Fold each of these.
Amino acid sequence: YLSRLRLTEPQLNSFIHVSDSVLKSAQEIDDKIAKGGGEALGPLAGVMVGVKDNICTADMPSTGGSRILENYRPPFDATAVKRLKEKGGIVVGKTNLDEFGMGSTTEGSGFQVTANPWDLGRVPGGSSGGSASAVSARQCVVSLGSDTGGSVRQPASFCGVVGLKPTYGRVSRFGLMAYASSLDVIGCLGTSVADVGIFLNAISGHDKFDATSSKQEVPDFESLFASINLLESKPLSGLKVGLIRETLDDGVDSGVKSAINAAVLHMQELGCIVNEVSLPSFSLGLPAYYILASSESSSNLSRYDGVRYGKQTVSDELNALYAGSRASGFGPEVKMRILMGTYALSAGYYDAYYKRAQQVRTLIRESFKTALDTNDILISPAAPSVAYKMGEKKNDPLSMYAGDIMTVNVNLAGLPALVVPCGFVEGGSSGLPVGLQMIGAAFHEEKLLKIGHLFE
Ligand code: GLN
């Protein structure tokens, strides 16, 4: 993996920082094996893991993709990182992202632009574009991403890999740089559903450092895969699948629609009963998400003031120091989000925007609940298009935001969702991948993983 990383990284730029102790960590595991003695190796022993750079690591810089945190080294590991290391995983480096997770292309990084391994002229998606590109190019086995409105699932779709957004609260957010705290989750990317499930197992569970992490028991996803019989015909017999009607509207590429239709046939072959379901409030998710995410971010990002956190611009006067540090440290997209959020939260506009968006959020949560009361899972495309060309949406934020339509509702409802590659559309030199999104009820990751494993 390391030689492949060195070979491909100059074209891809998936990593902001590559660890210089990968071989040493691998050697330690080898030594443990050679020594024998029956000491158990963790389920991730020797597994090369990429970590999105908005997730804190004590032994490497953690920038959040922002110049304001250039050279920042946190004094601790995020809980997810600590857990994966305890299970034997080796962090190979920190992957590129849109600044603080705000974007859908990874072009919004303060450091570099990451390429899509399927076509170097196209974006890998975002904001976890580095994590998706690294797994897709086999620079590492699995990677951590974060998903506030689709940032694990849309890049997984664009790069042809598996991506899982867990239920809100399943994985501790301790050490994840907050973007929109009520929506943020740490998620996993890998080349197979089994890899992603085993990885999720290693990082999940309650954490006393994150009050919103859940005390729900974490099922043993590893033994789940061992128990699945891949030779059975119709292994998903009778499983009810709801295809969300609103996700196949006019704005969706015809190639994506064909791939989803083929995926539906494949699910039927596996025994599923697939029916269309309507989520009438689906299209309201996008505006509600952008109001809520921007509002929460405007508050969360106030800590980067050059004093508590962030590179300091020297000034004799305190307010000028804050303003100077923020003006020079943040990129344009982040500034725009802070302005939008501050506006939506301000006294005269709060009721019209923030409060209204919260009401919409409740509607969306309820409509998912109703649909999932009568269906085991819901399905949709992971994105309305395949990976697009670099620069295509760079100066058109609204069209970039519109591309998040398939994913943001799931965060508003706090549900788990799995993206699995389901076909190709013509483009690039060997086709461009399409991802199928499977959405489950809260804490039903096990069901998604089982279906995904049989589907892929
Ligand atoms: N593209 C969305 C945004 O810019 C989602 C980002 C994310 O999930 N971190 O907010």
Amino acid sequence: MDISVKAPAKINLTLDVLHKRPDGYHDLEMVMTTVDLADRIDLTETSGGIRLESTSGFVPFDDRNLAYRAAALIKERFGIQKGVHILIHKHVPVAAGLAGGSSDAAATLRGLNTMWDLGLSPEELGDLGLALGSDVPFCVRGGTAIARGRGEKLTPLSPPPPCWVVLAKPPHGVSTAEVFQALDMRKIAERPNLEGMLKAIDQGDFPSVCSHLSNVLEGVTMPAYPKVRFLKERMVSFGADGVLMSGSGPTVFGLVKKESVVRRVVNGLRGFCRQVYAVRMLGGLEGSPLE
Ligand code: ATP
């Protein structure tokens, strides 16, 4: 059976780093939501082995690819003899703070769960996927959630008020591991107001969602990559309602209510940044297979 699975990007509406753990990971507290910018993954059953192709040359084609590793994990864990050909139609920018690789891994887990009739629940797929990356459990479910721990302790939320999301990805990638290494916990000046964001989402209060956007990793990535601050300032000046860096960056997103303003922000940014996207928030997809 052939299966095609959607792998949407995520953005962080809030991102807080609570402390560094003895195992080297950080305990996080984030509000994450999926957006309608997605890779598509075609899975075709073969007689054995794993083969991967991608429409983008910027991702590895071997066992360094997270989708490849997801398939290897499923095969090994469930003793599957059959093989799979994975074709990734890559649309989500790489090393961008949008969890593109984690979402490809999550989509591969979901697709193979169906293809090989494994009957695993989203929780079981998420537990399995945590070995591949901290964002994989969230990406398995999609929608909107508070993510705690490394990112695997999920509390589903109702979707944020509908709006446009303008994404601007500077030309360089950022390594998440390097950003966390450079983070000095003593230098975190301002932390997100999680309660305020939760209340804003619960009440469908769009201006309040915008005013509660907050990410402590901006304090690490922005000084190192001045283009991030530049793009934030531009988005604000072109009229975006709320602007933030996603994850460890460098992608900057703007939340915009009015379509006329979306056009102004996108056209205004195009002179400064080649990768600009205007998509819809998908945060209401909780529980959907996203296929
Ligand atoms: P996060 O927000 O989860 O930190 P990110 O969006 O910053 O992730 P990714 O696009 O997931 O970053 O890429 C991070 C690294 O993972 C890249 O160096 C890339 O080579 C590698 N990688 C492995 N598999 C994939 C994949 N399927 N798609 C994109 N990158 C992948």
